[in-house]
Design goal:
With about 450 residues, the protein is α/β, with parallel strands linked by helices. The chain folds into 2 domains: about 10-345, TIM Barrel (Alpha-Beta Barrel), CATH 3.20.20.210; about 355-455, Glutaredoxin (3-Layer(aba) Sandwich). Helix content is about 45%, strand content about 15%. The protein contains 19 helices and 13 strands. The strands form 3 sheets. A 7-stranded parallel β-sheet has the order 1-4-5-6-7-8-9, sandwiched between helices. α4 runs parallel beside α6, α7 (about 145-155) packs across α9 and α14 runs parallel beside α15 (about 325-335). About 55% of the residues are buried.
Length: about 450
């Protein structure tokens, strides 16, 4: 358990203040997974205040978090601003329509406490603050400006970076203002940490990050600090190239997923005296691994990373069906890493059966094949946009090109990713060759890439 003289909340906030601490704080990102603890679907916990509150209390009691999010849903603002959603039973909703896909208008409406699902969320935030706020730091998650802009604009946003940069700057400024309004509402409801979650930051170059995203994020984190709360810059995918730029925006912490070499990234964040959180693999360990796999990963990570300015956390929102015992194993390992290392000294994880994976004969395909490798396009925004980009481009060939998605949440696809040598997710392969890795192509780029391979192979 946490050192008796220091509550979990105090431990986490000390880390965010960059002070020496006696232990590493633990923040389980149990969004829709919270519902699993009480037998509720993802949709139930995201639309029913009492079920959400009950599930969050179960997370608090079962996983002994030093900090925990109240809601992990990057579609809350999009829904308020006119995006249609598609709901699933074991994941957050996804955006199904983009109001600005066919027009270049800048919205003006900023979220009000009565909009969309905000009354439910603000109510549960206040209830959680009263129930556990003395010993657990509470996170309010807001959608970062680039991901929110992509919800409104769709995949056209990647062309806007080149064709309509002034429009995109104006749209990002609006999305920045939405983020600040949401942060203000969440801080007023008692949130200690505001995390700006922007998965699509991994999909832009450092040059575009500096030109388009640095200023909006800097404004957001300064705004949060002025109101007495702490901040986190949460990014998914291989954002290695943008870690330095993210640090320059001034967050108190950065959170990354398994695509990032955490030890290397921490050297960068340490140079800026910024805390970093992560990055337990969501699929290979948390969802598909054993309790011992999770304990060993954590013990090994803690052995190779300096504990100062570090927060242990999953790489992103935990999958709904993550076995409860796996998360309990993580808790045990972070609370007593030395005993865990001794316990697992002779443990070896089960090897993947790569022989069971049959790859296509790419030299004898009847039609070009586009393969999309994702974490899970139904729950990962960047993965969803990568899949949509592939589907949109392939549709232009009117049946002359095949497309398939491999989700990393399925064990056989984990082995396929290893056998194919896929380094980062999401990625697009064309005829067995890597075309795009952690960068979502514009429709024009991908169509040209597919067409060029058709000519080359003809």
């Amino acid at each position: 358990m946490t050192t008796p003289s220091l509550t979990g909340k105090a431990l986490l906030l000390a880390t965010l203040r960059h002070e020496p601490t006696p232990a590493v704080p633990w923040v389980p990102f149990a969004g829709v997974h919270a519902g699993k603890l009480k037998g509720y679907t993802a949709r139930e916990v995201l639309t029913d205040a009492n079920k959400l509150f009950e599930s969050l209390l179960a997370v608090n009691q079962t996983y002994d978090p030093d900090g925990q999010p109240v809601v992990f849903d990057l579609q809350i603002e999009a829904e308020i601003l006119g995006c249609d959603l598609v709901w699933v039973e074991k994941g957050p909703p996804t955006v199904a329509s983009h109001p600005l896909a066919e027009r270049m208008d800048i919205p003006t409406h900023l979220p009000e406490p009565t909009d969309g699902r905000l009354p439910l969320i603000l109510d549960v935030m206040r209830r959680m603050k009263a129930a556990v706020g003395e010993h657990t730091a509470l996170y309010g998650l807001i959608t970062g400006p680039f991901t929110l802009a992509s919800h409104l604009r769709g995949t056209e946003i990647f062309m806007d970076m080149f064709d309509h940069p002034d429009f995109l700057r104006d749209l990002l400024a609006f999305c920045r203002d939405v983020a600040k309004r949401m942060a203000a509402l969440y801080i007023e409801a008692g949130m200690d940490v505001i995390a700006a979650v922007d998965p699509l930051v991994s999909q832009v170059s450092p040059r575009h990050f500096a030109r388009l995203l640095s200023a909006p994020f800097s404004d957001i984190f300064a705004f949060i600090r002025e109101r007495g709360a702490y901040s986190s810059f949460f990014v998914c995918g291989d954002a290695t190239k943008n870690i330095e730029g993210m640090c320059h925006t001034g967050p108190d912490s950065i959170s990354v997923d398994e695509n990032i070499d955490l030890v290397a990234a921490k050297r960068i964040t340490d140079a800026h005296n910024i805390a970093i959180g992560g990055n337990i693999p969501l699929t290979t360990r948390m969802l598909l691994g054993t309790q011992q796999d999770n304990m060993k990963f954590v013990a090994d990570l803690l052995a190779q990373i300096t504990p100062h300015n570090f927060i242990l956390a999953p790489g992103c929102d935990m999958p709904y069906d993550t076995p409860i015992e796996n998360v309990v194993g993580v808790l045990q390992a972070v609370r007593d890493p030395e005993a865990t290392r001794v316990m697992l000294a002779n443990y070896h994880a089960e090897a993947l059966d790569l022989d069971a994976v049959i790859l296509p004969d790419y030299t004898a395909l009847e039609k070009p094949l586009v393969e999309v490798f994702t974490l899970d396009s139904d729950t990962c925004s960047a993965c969803g946009y990568m899949r949509d980009a592939a589907l949109r481009a392939v549709a232009e060939f009117a049946g002359q090109v095949d497309v398939v998605e491999y989700k990393f949440t399925q064990k056989e696809n984990v082995a396929r990713v290893v056998k194919m040598g896929v380094k980062n997710l999401p990625s697009i392969y064309i005829n067995g060759e890597l075309a795009y890795s952690s960068i979502i192509p514009s429709n024009r780029e991908l169509v040209e890439a597919i067409a060029s391979r058709m000519k080359r192979d003809s």
